[in-house]
Backbone:
């Protein structure tokens, strides 16, 4: 496992964590992040989401929501998700605030907005290391089922990338093959550390 | 000590190095080396100078990880000890070419650090002192060498991973070499970390470096990058490189806004329409571009300002492009390949040669504004590269053309080159578009997406212009393929067809890169294959083609331009040569074939002239490899050639108008030479000849051409170019003589597969074209012809649609809705559809859906075609009175639900329905007259008793009675006339549900319609009434019905009250009716249960007077009452009411009253023992006693024998009331007494002696048992003497005594009877 992966979504809860969890189980060197301003979880209604700061431990959120309405959050899968998340890592991390985590080789995003934010953030950093980083976006809807599918696809793709010597040479083929096989559109970009 | 340590470290280092060298295992090696690095860098740096060269020896190590680590170590060491760089950089340069990308990448990464550091050091040292260290100078010199080694990597094909970094390296250099606006341009006084670096510090002067030179170098490097993204190169790049280039350039633009003017034009030039990067991955590039543009937009620098508008525009375009993207991708995925349009590009080439320096031409695809770029150093390169590309295209064509040279002066007509330039000089945009298409096509299938976008983005008009401008490229001859042997010629055939006759086809239709080939070969092949054979199988051929084309295309997929095309050509040629040879043999006419290229050289059987080709071939080859410079030197030639070419082009045009097949006359073939601008060729000599064709040949040719266009639908379908295909077909249909039966062909095509052939669209096209033709009215004949063709065509299509499509299909309806007008024939068709004839629907009437289909079409037409509205309405209405009920009901639903609500036609519908309704009344069949009279009589109130069969019956049973009672002869006519009546009235009834005011008419007409019609009405009315409910109109009718409609009214009332609670309005309407007009209590029965006691009692005698069954119904209703108020009359009340009827006064026959009573007694569960007791109790108090009282008593005791004691009480009370004074009751009394003996004996004994005497006289048989009863000692003692005397138990001795006793006795019994009465009253109150 020579590449370092980052899974990035908006809140570092569902899509990125699903992928993080899956890749971690598969032995990948993987981290996960969110690019949003806050961590947002569905609340009792659309207008009342539960908002947390990045860095708030998943366990804390779990306890908080369980106190608020255990039935609701169990039913909509939030509690199980938080439980899963807390078994993967302590707390959601914000991409922009964790530049110190070092270089990744592959950054996987699950939403075009996130993709753009990651690229913008990377471009704003200084490119001192001259280390290339692949940023791939796969649009995944933010629900549990799609997240599971998305994570599987991300794993597939990461395995493909691991399998080649130099992803820079193979990326076009890999992406094309992936798109053909899964009928999903990928957008990628290359940036540098 | 220190020395010791140093020595130790040195030894350690040596041993580490040796171990690293000798170790066979890579991980171990790496470990040793890392330790060595640690030692050298941190423990004893003094060892480095010794070790640097020795390390360099490792550069040839076989293990790539070792080499990579070494490259990394060089960086680490070099950063700290720059003086060592001269010894290590060569290794780094060596690594750049390493076969393992990772090593080369590391080398570039390392080199980039080093370069930056060395540069900074050089600059800062130079600022501080006027002289530099030698070692530093030497290091810098090596760094420059290194840089020069990296630069080519960025532009040469190779590992993308390495290339990306090389690009990045160049970006770094550009940034380093140019002033950073964000960093102070004043040089720092002393070096310190993190202060940034700005090359402009050098302005003050530097021993080694010069700001201007560096800026120049940066500019050149930038150009290097920009050129990558320019037109021809960009398409050979992989996506990742394009992305990185875009990112890098936008980063440079952001950081060095002064470069905006150079970078943005290139980026903007990469707009979605023209930048096609390896075909597939366009979205990524778009995305990168979008981000780049966004980033550039954010820049606030002043030099960025002028670009904003264009950036915004470009962003919009990208967004639009992304929307279009999926579609493009889809096409690509489906295996579609780009049509090539090579023949489009020559005009453009003309232009280049004509207007040598016309820069506008140079960037066709890229919409760059050249004015803004004139100063751009790189501009020249762009021009030349483009030109190279264009001419290479041209060269290809020349190649092809040269094939057609023939020793036998048989020349092949190749209208490749058009004179668009000279002709369409006026139409600027068209011209530009044509060139643009040309340029795109020149890129082969990679430009598919762009072409697609281009085609879809220009207006139809413009597209048409382009097509017309290209029409002259149509092949002048119409070759006819012949069976299977010519599969290959079909290749040419089809592709030639695609590329020539439909130049503006969408890109994905057919193979692309074979292009030049296909445009020339088809000519070859087709000419060879012209044979007057009528049978061919085009589709087969085309299938073959497609396979072939694909194969060829695959071969040409690699991006490089010229060489590949040649390869392709040659690859596909052998195939094309063979069949043409076949043909040659077959025809017996030696039609020489000139194929081409290498294959030609080697062997084309039967061709002698190949050698003559070879020379040309060679020169062609030369030209393919020729560079831009070469082209330029030859421009002069081109200008000369162009004039020749124009001539030819005009000839081509003539030829095109009269296509001539050229086989029979072997001597002469039409020959148009076409010329390209490839400068270094000398044109083959051309002769122009004419061929006279027989009329049959001409016709045949035309037909074949038409078929060819027609059969191209497959390609069209894939490409979606039907908006061109269809008008072309319809136009040809109009233009061709009728004998050719183009319409028939077209029709057959449309109908063979309506769906897949876009039959609807094509049919519409054809019809509109014909309509125009007819309406133009140029001359009588043609317009009449067009009209008749129009009608037959439409009718044929409509009939086929009707016959072949499932009934639920909407195609027919849609077609009829959209055609220019509807001829009568089609309307007739619709009529037949909506009103199927009898014999027909018997056999296929399971498809009642057909009617639905027809009706929905009619409805559609009524909605959409006001001019046909009346006619269509008529069709619908006819269908609505169709004899078959299923048809009729469908039509009625349509008319009533959909059409009737339309204000414009509702009046007509209403009138029609009324007429139909009236017709029922008018057409009274003679046979029914009597019946009608009978029923009319029956309506009169008193007719019921006299005329039971035809007489007045309760309406629900009316049908049944009449059907069963009428004689059998009548029966048939009746049932048929019922259905006939139903046919006529159904529509009206349906309308009533929509418009309640129509109801009255039904009532009004009711009395004058025949019996059968009445039955029909009776069937309908309950449904109708249930649908409407108690609407105000209906209530109005109820309260004031037309005379003669009573029985209908009854039916309505029954329906209205059946199972539902009638509204108060309804009840009051009925009451009103009863009181005002219609004194028949009959009508009250339905609402009886909802009337109050006070209302019922006055009419109660009338109710009793009703026929028994009605009375029973009324009885039930009264007892049942309404759910809210309970029964209107309780059972005792009813019985009492019955007894209250005075037959004399109320004019009710006594029998009726008796029957009513009996009816009550029949309902023992309602009129129970208690009820009877109560009733009798009350009745007995009435004065006078009711007439039927005793009868009721007798009946009561008959029904309930247990009442006997109670009855005895009653009887004794009657005695007190001196019952003998009422002769009728007295009879009843005695009758009762007889019936109830022996219990009645005690009562009889209470009678006064004279009455007892009377009774015994009337009923002598009583005397003995009564006497016996009285003779019992205990009874005898209580009896007055007079009674005993009457009974003959005592002799009449004391006449006065017993009378007294009897009186007192009578008083006694009277009081006791009163006691009983009060008792019973109490009881009855308790019961009630």
Residues:
């Amino acid at each position: 496992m020579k590449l370092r992966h980052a899974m990035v979504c908006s809140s570092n809860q569902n899509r990125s964590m699903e992928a993080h969890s899956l890749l971690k189980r598969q032995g990948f060197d993987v981290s996960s992040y969110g690019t949003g301003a806050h961590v947002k979880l569905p609340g009792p209604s659309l207008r009342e989401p539960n908002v947390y700061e990045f860095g708030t431990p998943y366990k804390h959120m779990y306890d908080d929501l369980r106190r608020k309405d255990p039935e609701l959050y169990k039913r909509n899968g939030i509690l199980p998700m938080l439980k899963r998340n807390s078994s993967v890592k302590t707390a959601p991390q914000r991409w922009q605030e964790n530049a110190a985590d070092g270089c990744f080789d592959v950054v996987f995003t699950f939403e075009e907005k996130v993709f753009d934010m990651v690229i913008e953030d990377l471009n704003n950093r200084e490119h001192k290391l001259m280390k290339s980083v692949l940023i791939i976006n796969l649009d995944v809807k933010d629900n549990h089922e799609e997240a599971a599918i998305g994570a599987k696809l991300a794993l597939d793709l990461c395995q493909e990338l691991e399998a080649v010597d130099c992803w820079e040479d193979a990326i076009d083929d890999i992406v094309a093959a992936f798109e053909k096989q899964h009928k999903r559109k990928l957008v990628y970009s290359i940036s540098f550390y | 000590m220190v020395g010791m340590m140093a020595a130790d470290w040195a030894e350690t280092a040596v041993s580490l190095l040796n171990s690293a060298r000798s170790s066979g295992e890579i991980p171990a090696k790496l470990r040793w080396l890392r330790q060595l690095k640690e030692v050298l860098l941190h423990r004893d740096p003094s060892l480095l100078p010794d070790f640097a060269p020795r390390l360099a020896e490792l550069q040839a190590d076989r293990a790539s990880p070792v080499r990579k680590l070494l490259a990394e170590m060089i960086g680490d060491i070099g950063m700290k000890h720059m003086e060592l760089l001269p010894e290590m950089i060569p290794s780094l340069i060596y690594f750049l070419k390493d076969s393992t990308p990772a090593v080369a990448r590391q080398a570039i990464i390392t080199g980039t650090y080093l370069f930056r550091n060395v540069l900074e050091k050089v600059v800062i040292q130079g600022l501080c002192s006027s002289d530099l260290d030698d070692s530093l100078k030497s290091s810098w010199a090596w760094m420059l060498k290194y840089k020069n080694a990296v630069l080519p990597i960025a532009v040469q094909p190779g590992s993308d991973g390495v290339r990306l970094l090389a690009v990045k390296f160049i970006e770094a250099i550009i940034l380093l070499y140019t002033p950073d606006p964000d960093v102070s341009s004043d040089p720092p006084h002393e070096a310190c970390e993190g202060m940034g670096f700005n090359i402009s510090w050098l302005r003050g002067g530097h021993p080694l470096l010069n700001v201007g030179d560096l800026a120049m170098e940066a500019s050149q490097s930038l150009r290097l990058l920009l050129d990558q993204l320019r037109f021809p190169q960009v398409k050979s790049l992989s996506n990742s490189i394009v992305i990185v280039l875009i990112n890098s350039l936008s980063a440079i633009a952001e950081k060095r806004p002064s470069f905006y003017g150079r970078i943005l034009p290139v980026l903007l030039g990469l707009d979605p329409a023209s930048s096609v990067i390896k075909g597939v991955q366009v979205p990524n590039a778009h995305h990168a571009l979008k981000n780049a543009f966004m980033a550039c937009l954010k820049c606030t620098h002043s030099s960025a300002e002028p670009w904003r508008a264009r950036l915004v525009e470009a962003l919009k375009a990208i967004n639009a492009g992304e929307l279009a993207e999926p579609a493009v991708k889809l096409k690509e995925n489906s295996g579609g390949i780009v049509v090539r349009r090579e023949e489009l590009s020559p005009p453009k080439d003309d232009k280049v040669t004509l207007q040598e320096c016309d820069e506008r031409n140079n960037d066709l695809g890229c919409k760059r504004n050249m004015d803004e770029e004139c100063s751009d150093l790189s501009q020249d390169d762009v021009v030349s590269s483009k030109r190279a590309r264009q001419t290479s295209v041209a060269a290809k064509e020349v190649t092809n053309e040269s094939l057609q040279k023939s020793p036998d002066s048989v020349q092949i007509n190749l209208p490749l080159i058009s004179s668009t330039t000279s002709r369409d000089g006026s139409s600027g945009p068209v011209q530009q578009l044509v060139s643009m298409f040309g340029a795109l096509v020149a890129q082969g299938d990679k430009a598919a997406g762009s072409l697609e976008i281009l085609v879809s983005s220009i207006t139809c008009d413009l597209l048409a212009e382009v097509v017309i401008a290209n029409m002259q490229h149509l092949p002048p001859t119409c070759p006819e393929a012949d069976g299977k042997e010519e599969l290959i010629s079909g290749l040419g055939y089809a592709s030639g067809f695609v590329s020539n006759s439909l130049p503006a086809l969408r890109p994905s239709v057919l193979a692309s890169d074979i292009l030049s080939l296909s445009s020339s070969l088809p000519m070859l092949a087709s000419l060879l294959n012209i044979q007057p054979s009528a049978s061919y199988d085009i589709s087969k051929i085309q299938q073959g083609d497609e396979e072939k084309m694909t194969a060829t295309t695959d071969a040409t997929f690699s991006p490089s331009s010229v060489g590949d095309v040649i390869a392709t050509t040659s690859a596909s040629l052998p195939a094309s040569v063979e069949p043409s040879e076949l043909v040659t043999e077959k025809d017996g006419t030696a039609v020489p074939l000139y194929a081409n290229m290498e294959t030609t050289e080697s062997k084309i059987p039967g061709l002698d002239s190949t050698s003559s080709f070879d020379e040309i071939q060679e020169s062609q080859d030369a030209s393919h490899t020729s560079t831009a410079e070469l082209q330029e030197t030859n421009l002069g030639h081109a200008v000369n050639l162009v004039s020749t070419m124009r001539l030819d082009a005009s000839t081509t045009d003539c030829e095109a108008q009269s296509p001539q097949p050229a086989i029979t006359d072997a001597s002469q073939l039409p020959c148009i030479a076409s010329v390209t601008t490839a400068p270094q060729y000398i044109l083959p000599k051309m002769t122009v000849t004419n061929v006279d064709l027989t009329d049959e040949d001409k016709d045949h040719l035309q037909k074949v051409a038409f078929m060819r266009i027609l059969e191209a639908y497959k390609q069209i379908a894939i490409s979606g170019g039907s908006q061109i295909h269809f008008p072309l077909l319809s136009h040809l249909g109009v233009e061709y003589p009728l004998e050719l039966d183009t319409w028939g062909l077209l029709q057959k095509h449309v109908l063979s597969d309506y769906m897949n052939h876009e039959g609807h669209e094509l049919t519409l096209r054809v019809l509109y074209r014909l309509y125009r033709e007819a309406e133009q009215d140029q001359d009588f004949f043609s317009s009449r012809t067009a009209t008749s063709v129009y009608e037959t065509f439409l009718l044929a299509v409509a009939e086929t649609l009707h016959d072949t499509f499932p009934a639920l299909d909407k195609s027919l309806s849609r077609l009829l809705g959209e055609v220019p007008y509807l001829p009568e024939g089609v309307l007739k068709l619709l009529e037949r559809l909506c009103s199927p004839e009898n014999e027909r629907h018997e056999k296929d009437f399971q498809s009642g859906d057909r009617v639905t289909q027809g009706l929905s079409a009619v409805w559609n037409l009524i909605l959409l075609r006001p001019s046909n509205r009346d006619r269509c309405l008529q069709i619908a209405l006819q269908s609505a009175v169709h004899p078959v009920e299923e048809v009729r009901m469908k039509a009625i639903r349509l008319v009533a639900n959909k059409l009737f609500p339309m204000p414009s036609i509702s009046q007509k519908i209403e009138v029609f329905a009324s007429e139909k309704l009236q017709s029922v009344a008018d057409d009274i069949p003679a046979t029914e007259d009597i019946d009608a009279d009978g029923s009319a009589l029956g309506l009169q109130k008193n007719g019921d008793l006299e005329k039971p069969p035809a007489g007045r019956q309760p309406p629900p049973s009316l049908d049944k009675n009449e059907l069963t009672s009428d004689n059998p002869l009548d029966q048939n006519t009746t049932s048929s006339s019922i259905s006939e009546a139903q046919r006529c009235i159904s529509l009206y009834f349906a309308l009533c549900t929509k418009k309640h005011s129509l109801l009255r008419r039904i009532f009004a007409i009711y009395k004058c319609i025949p019996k059968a019609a009445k039955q029909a009405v009776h069937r309908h009315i309950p449904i109708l009434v249930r649908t409407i409910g108690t609407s105000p109109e209906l209530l109005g009718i109820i309260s004031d019905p037309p005379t003669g409609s009573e029985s209908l009214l009854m039916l309505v009332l029954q329906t209205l009250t059946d199972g539902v609670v009638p509204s108060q309005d309804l009840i009051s309407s009925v009451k009103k009716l009863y009181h005002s007009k219609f004194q028949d209590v009959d009508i009250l029965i339905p609402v009886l249960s909802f009337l109050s006691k006070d209302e019922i009692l006055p009419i109660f005698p009338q109710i009793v007077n009703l026929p028994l069954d009605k009375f029973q119904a009324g009885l039930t209703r009264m007892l049942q009452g309404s759910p809210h108020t309970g029964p209107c009359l309780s059972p005792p009340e009813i019985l009492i009411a019955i007894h209250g009827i005075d037959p004399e006064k109320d004019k009710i026959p006594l029998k009726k009253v008796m029957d009513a009573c009996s009816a009550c007694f029949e309902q023992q569960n309602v009129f129970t023992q208690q009820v009877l007791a109560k009733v009798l109790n009350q009745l007995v108090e009435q004065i006078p006693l009711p007439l039927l009282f005793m009868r009721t008593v007798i009946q009561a005791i008959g029904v309930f024998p247990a009442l006997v004691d109670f009855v005895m009480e009653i009887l004794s009370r009657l005695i007190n009331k001196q019952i003998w004074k009422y002769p009728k009751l007295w009879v009843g009394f005695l009758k009762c007494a007889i019936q109830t003996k022996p219990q009645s004996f005690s009562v009889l004994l209470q009678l006064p002696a004279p009455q007892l005497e009377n009774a015994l006289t009337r009923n002598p048989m009583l005397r003995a048992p009564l006497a016996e009863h009285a003779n019992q000692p205990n009874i005898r003692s209580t009896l007055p003497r007079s009674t005993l005397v009457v009974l003959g138990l005592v002799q009449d001795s004391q006449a006065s005594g017993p009378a007294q006793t009897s009186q007192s006795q009578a008083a006694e019994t009277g009081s006791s009877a009163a006691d009983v009465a009060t008792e019973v009253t109490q009881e009855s109150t308790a019961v009630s």
User: Anything to note?
Assistant: The two ends of chain A are 20 Å apart (CA to CA). The beta strands of chain A are 4-9, 29-34, 39-41, 50-52, 106-109, 132-138, 186-192. Chain A is about 45% helix and 20% strand. The helical segments of chain A are 15-25, 58-68, 70-75, 78-88, 112-124, 144-163, 167-182.
